[in-house]
Amino acid sequence: MPGTARHDREMAIQAKRNLSKTTDPVERLRLQCLARGSAGIKGLGRVFRIMDDDNSRTLDFKEFVKGLNDYAMMIDKEEAQQIFRVFDKDGSGTIDFDEFLVTLRPPMSNARKEIIMQAFRKLDKTGDGIITIEDLRGVYNAKHHPKYQNGDWTEDQVFRAFLDNFDSPYDKDGKVTTEEFMNYYAGVSASIDTDVYFIVMMKNAWKL
């Protein structure tokens, strides 16, 4: 439903193709994430978050490299150092990983960001900035889902599977934040050329 499988496949193929042509280390990392589909960048974010033991929301170089390795990114140490230097603007030896993820996201126009936020606000019934199963009850009809219809899943299982679309592959907690939603759609957005088409797709998907 939200980011169609076809878009995901197209984007992954495109990212792999571009990877062989680009030498910019940040762009290479972005493309490696996108080659995993819409949730690729968000997945890397989750790996970093798990490693941030002291909740400082920053990473030093060693943690940064370990995160890239844990996520099986093909990046040598020299390339990792170049990327780290780009993000360590003040030369403090640490990088802010929220800023890192925002920079890594493929750029989106304001029109696209606005329609993504409209969809988020529609789903976030309680308005607390996090979408949960409770939020979905009145907004998303689980009864049309084939697995609900054939008795395999309960309504809550359908909701949970829906939320897992946006959640990171490594840490599915049944909660979707604004940042995760935006990261997911940045991935989808990368496979869609025009704003008009992206906005039409979002309006149809979410009945906005």
TrEMBL record:
It comes from Nothoprocta perdicaria. Keywords: Calcium, Metal-binding, Repeat. This is Calcyphosine like. Residues 39-74, 75-110, 111-146 form the EF-hand domain. Pfam families: EF-hand_7 (PF13499). InterPro entries: Ca-bind (IPR051581), EF-hand-dom_pair (IPR011992), EF_Hand_1_Ca_BS (IPR018247), EF_hand_dom (IPR002048). The keyword Lyase does not apply. The lineage of its organism: Eukaryota, Metazoa, Chordata, Craniata, Vertebrata. CDD domains: EFh (cd00051). It comes from the Eukaryota. GO terms for molecular function: calcium ion binding. The keyword Transmembrane does not apply. SUPFAM superfamilies: EF-hand.
